Amino acid sequence: MAEPEAIIALDRIFKARSVAVVGASADPAKLGFMTLDSIVKGGFEGPVFPVNPKAREILGLKAYPSLKAIPKPVDLAVIIVPARFVPAVIREAGQAGIPGAVVLTAGFREAGRADLEDELAAAARTGRVRFVGPNVQGINYLPNKLCAMFFPVITARGPLTVITQSGSATAGLSEWAVREGLGVNAAVNLGNQADLTDSDYLDYFAADQTTGVIALYLEGVCQGRRFLKSALAAAAVKPVVVLKSGRSAAGRQAAASHTGALAGRHQVFAAACRQVGLEVAEDLTSLFDRAKGLAAIKPPKGNRLLSISTSGGMGGLAADEAEAEGLSLPPLPEEYRQSLKAESLSPLSNLSNPLDLGYVKVEAFGRAALLADRHEAADVILLNLGDPVPGAVEAALELGRSLKASLAVSYLGGGEEEERARFALNRAGLAAFPSPERALRGIGAAVRAADFKRRRGGERPALADWTPPTPGRGGSTRLLTEPEAAALIGDFGLGYPEHRLARTAGEAAAISAELGCPVVLKIVSPAAAHKTEIGGVMAGVATPEEARSGFETLTGRLRNHRPGAELAGVLVCRQAEEGLEVIVGGTLDPVFGPVVMFGLGGVQAEALADVAFRVAPLERTDAEEMIREIKGFPLLSGWRGRPPADLEALAGVVRAVSRLMTERDDILELDLNPVRVYAHGALPLDARIVTAGK
């Protein structure tokens, strides 16, 4: 959710009319020199004031001993002095009426000096100074020609706004954009975010008219729910691509549920970002390619791709990556094939998709693409150039103006001609990539963004506020007994097999007779979170006598596996009909709060790890998307003659878990595993719930 004060503060920083560099140096080896030099070389048109008590002039600019000594108003202080002096400089900035600062200096919280960072933040609040950093490479806002960073100096404008938590990533992405002809609108290094945060920058650049696409590299987020709300608002008006490091980090330890064990933080982060419309990248190259695709590819009307090439190899690579991106390469319509034959483009043509024209001149690419458009053969056309193609730039630009389908270019194997052509195409606003795989990542991003807007329409996720529990809430947890868990989910409209708790073998026999055999017997003990691990479940119990002996068997297994464990009894349940098994769960993520999981269920849930996550509360669309997202979805849609599962009932179970996780803030982990799904209806057969407190 946008904070007006932060947006106003950032506007003053990025559009500053005058800048002071505190710690400016005449020594080219020092960051104070490099930063001042960048501002000058970047072409900043306002007055620049070096501040250094030992210098009279730096880079031809009059130097001042302090901020207070500058005789004219200053909008922005760029600070690069030793960390211990920064709070005093911020206090002086406040006294001088300077509204904004960029603190390049490192040596704060990241170096173990949280106290110094707290002092800096307090000084800024007192002086009403909003600041970027500390511990940053700087900012570059090209509409104002303000390159307040020590490296690199980027002056080639374009649609890309880069926001990262890594100075190297900021520099690298910016330089790639310049080298490829895309250009940069802004580059921001987040640093420690002691004041202005990732959400503030998203809010600002969502409203920034010169930003075409936002590329984010994050190592974490400051406030999970606020970040998602800002991301949702930003993605509604312009594309956002995000890369987060930490994919290999282990998930939570000692989880009492499958959901807790499966909810690695990166999985949840990626799912939450997709839920609000962000494109998720796998690495820095992918981040750049996906951002380029979103900036320069016209929103596709669907996911049908046609690759047109003179190289079978390039076509094969495109086909492989298209499948990975969820794109379709449909067969060519017969009318289109006949039109191509009539053109006699080349005797070497292979009229399939990918379309291999053989060795032809650029005009043949144009005719093949225009014919495909006429016959509506594709939603996206890839000119997949695998050899030097004279005239490729002019032909591609003309196609970009003429085609109803979206267009992208891959150019590989053309040497200097290839590099020149790619630069010219990107500079002209037509997405061009150095390989088929990279082109397909850009296309995939554009297809998903367009599809998200079509499917969602005006619907926006209802992201409720969530505050992480205070540390004093304690680490004690309680595993509800299965009867307690069944009663709780019943309060939220979920069914459960009819059941009774038996405390003796005789009660087990009597209950089984009352319910009607066959029944299922399940051990009920806080020490048996996963009952199957100790053989704590017996299905197909056919008579009351079998129930009597089964009681003794199960309680004996508990004593053998968990000596001294507390025993509540044995749950006797009416046995449900056979059906496909899934898992629906919930967990409390430390960043985003309550999240919901869906996947294939049964005892193999953790081993299969075929799951989808969403942040609660869930809209109907979210639940439906989760179900279709897993690889095992074909099993639910009518596999090999089986009747399709009741997806509406299943979505109802998912949304009920979402409500439960949202309304009960004491629930830490929840598993409904398995949920048995039928042609009509869905029924949880086991419930495991972990709550905070005793």
What does this structure look like?
With 694 residues, this protein is an alpha/beta fold. It folds into four domains: 242 residues, Rossmann fold (3-Layer(aba) Sandwich); 139 residues, Succinyl-CoA synthetase domains (Rossmann fold, 3-Layer(aba) Sandwich); 77 residues, ATP-grasp fold, A domain (Dna Ligase, domain 1, 2-Layer Sandwich), CATH 3.30.1490.20; 113 residues, ATP-grasp fold, B domain (D-amino Acid Aminotransferase, Chain A, domain 1). It is built from 23 helices and 30 strands. The strands form six sheets. A seven-stranded mixed beta sheet has the order 9-8-11-10-12-13-14, with helices on both faces. Strands 20, 25, 26, 27, 28, 29 and 30 form a seven-stranded antiparallel beta sheet that branches. Helix 1 packs across helix 6. The longest helix has 21 residues. It is flat and about 100 Å long. About 2% of the residues have low confidence.
Distance between the first and last residues' Cα: 36 Å
Largest sheet: 7 strands, mixed
* CATH T-level topology of the largest domain: Rossmann fold
CATH architecture of the largest domain: 3-Layer(aba) Sandwich
The CATH homologous superfamily of the largest domain is termed NAD(P)-binding Rossmann-like Domain
